[in-house]
Specification:
The chain is of the alpha+beta class. It is 54% helix and 10% strand.
Length: 761
Amino acid sequence: MAATVVKIPEGTVIYSKGDPLSNISLIGDGMVECTIDSYVNALGKTDILGYCGLLTKHFVCTYTAVSDVTLYQYPCDGIDALEALMGENADITYLMVSSACRQAASMLRYRARLKGEVDTSYDFVRDFYEEYSRLCKQYGSSPKKLPGLDEVVKFSGEDKAPRWVHAYYIEISELPPATHRAFYHNRPGIQIGFMRRCVGDISLIFQVCALYYDYVAHNAALLLSSGGYDLFSLVSDLHIDTMKIDGADFAIESLMTPISEALSDMSGVNADFYQQRIEVYWEALENARTSQEHVEKTEAPKTQGVNQSLVNSVETIIKYAECDEELATTFADNIRAYTGFTDRNGTDDEIYDVRRSLTKAFYEVYKLAFIKSLNDSSPPTIINMFLNFGFVDPILAGNENANFLFSIADSYKGDPSRNIFTVREWLAAIYRGDREPSLSEFDMDFAAYVKDMKNNKQIDANTERRLLQDQDAKLKYEMENAFPVVNRVTFGNPSKFCPVFADHNVLRSIEGTLVTAAKVTEILDEIREIDFSAFYRETAYSNVKQNVQNETIHVEVLPNIILMPNVGNRGSMWQEIEGRLRTTPARMFMPIFLENDLKTILLRLTADFRWEMCKRIQGARWNDMTDPSITSYYCDYLQFYMNNRNIAMQTMTEIRNEISSARNNYKTVFSNNYVAWVQNEAKGQARLNSIVIGIFMTFMPFPASLRETLSKNMRYNDALQRYGARRTKRVKRLSLLVKNLSQNPRGCPQELKDELMFAQR
C-alpha cells in the first residue's frame, strides 16, 4: 500500500479534533504539535499522526505544523485497516510501534498530572472560599455568594484504564532504541498485537483524561472565569476595599499568593486571560496603596456584622447616578426622614408625604443610575443592589438583610433565555430593542401612545416615525408608566408602598423569600406537566409548497416573567400578548422577594393568563355560550347554577359562598378553582364539582398519564369519555394527514408532526 507524500507549510492545522479519520500519517521531516484540551505533545520525525482515533474513526487531537512538514499518508480508517497496512509495510511497522509507545507514555504522564489536580482542586476551592469568608468578617465586609460553589462535589467519575498500564508504557518508552528494534523488528505478530493493545488502552486514557479535564476546568472557572465574577475577583476586590484597614493588606495579599500559584499551573486556565487579570489587579493594588500612603490607617472594626463596604450607600448611589444638587438633597433627606420613623407604615400626613416624595425621587435616581449602568460592564456592588433590590441604606434595610443582599448582588441574575428577567435585565432588553414596552396603567402600548400624541397635534408625522424607532423613548415609556405602577401592585399594599428596601417589610427569612430563575423554571415546568396546554396558542398554518392550506396548529409561547425590586406578596398578569400578535409572550410581574408561596402565585398567574387570553381570542363573544370557550362556559355555569338540576343544594351553597368571597368576580373564582384543579384534582383529591371538572377537562385537559390514573375514579368518567371522543377524532384526522403528506417527495412539515404529538398528549 503506497504512501502519498504531502508537504505542509508551517502554521497549518493538519487535522482538527473531530475530523473523520481516513488515513494515518508518518512524519518524514519537520515538527508537529498535538493538542487536546490542555495537553500538548511535540511530535517529530518518524512519529505517526492519527492512531489514537482508530477505534472512534475520528481524530481525537488537533495536529498543527510548527515547521514545514513532510508527511507520508497511508489510507487507514480503522483498527482492522491498520493490521492490513502493517502487513504490507514491514519497513515502517517498527516506527509505528515506537511512536505509539512514546505517545501513550506522554498521555499517561498527562493523565497523572490531571489526576493530581482533580485530587487537590476540590479542597483548594472550598478551603479558599472559607478563608475568603473569614477575612471578610474580620475586616468588616460580607462574603459574596459565588454561583456554582455549592455544586462542587468530589470527583466521582470512573478511570477505566488499568493501573498497570501507566508503568507498562512508560518503562517500554524508556528502553534504548536498540532494545526496541531487537524485540519488535521483523516480528509482525508482536507488532500487530502491541498496536491493537495500545490503541485500546489509549482510547480509555483519552476518555478518562476528558473526565478529569472537565472536572478541573469547572473548578478552575470558579477561581477564574471569563465572565469576571470568580474567587479571584472576590478576593482582589476585598483587598482593594479594605486597604485602609490595619493588617488587611498583608493578610489578604497572603491569600492571593496561593491562588496565583494555582492558576498559573492549573489545566483549563487561559494563560493570556490570567495574565490580563493579574496585571489589572496589580495596577489597582498599586493605585490603592499609593492613595493610602498619607492616610492614617484605622483599626479593624470591632463589630463584625457591620459591612464597611455599605457605609455611605446613599452617597455612593447619588454620586454614581450623577444627580443634580436638588435631586441629591431631596433623595438623601427623604431617606434620612423615612429611616427615622418608628412606624414607616403609618397613615398620618407626615409619613405619607415622606413616602410620596421619596417614591418620586427614587424613580428619578433609579432612571439615572440604570442608564449609566447600560455602558458599565462592572458597576459597583451597591449599584447592583440598588437596581435589582431597591436597596439604598444598610440601616433602613437592616444589617443582616443588607449583608445578604451584598453577598448576592454581583452574582444574582435572571434567565432571559427562558424569559425570566430581573427588572434591570428587562429594562435593558427594552433598550436594546429585544422587547417592546409594556402597556401603561390605562392599557395603552407605546405605539398607541405615540399615535395619540400625533392625533392631539403634540407631534408631527416625522416625529411620530422617529419616536417609534427611538429606543430611549421606549425605555422612558416603560420606566415612567409600567415600572412604577407594577412595582406598587406587586408590593401588595399600595397605600403603604415605598420602593426602597426596608426591613419592616421583611416578615420571613430574606434568603428564603428570594425568587430565583431556577425556582421559577422548576415550578413552571411542574405546572406545564399537569396543564400541558397552558401556554399553547392556536394559530393558522399553511404551506403551499407542501400542499397544506389553513391548518390549525398549537404553538407554545412561554410568558415573560419579570422580578420587581421589592418585598411583596402579589403577582400581576399584566398583559397576555404584545401588540396584536397572539403568538407573542404574556407579561407577568412578581416581587423579587416573595412573602407568599411561589407555586400558588404562579398558578394564579397562569389562571389569569388563561382567562385573559380566552377573552382576547373570543373578543366581544367571550361570555357567549353559542361560541364555546373557557370563559363562556364558566360564566354560564356561575350565572345559572341555581337553575341547574344536576347540582345538589349543598353544592349550590358552596358555589354561592365562593362567588361571595370573590366579591362576585368570576375570574377570581376561576383562579381559585384552577389552583385546586392543578394541585388537588390532578392527584385525585376531590375539590371541585362535576360541572367545573367537565369544563376544565374540556378546555384544560390533563396529560394522558394522569387521565389514565384518574379514569379509575368514577368522578372523572363522564368528563374523560367526552374528552377522549374529541381527542380520538382529532388524532385520527391528523394521523391520516401526516401519513399522506409523508408520502410526498417534500415530506410532511415538522409543524404538523408537532401538532400530532400535541394532540396525542
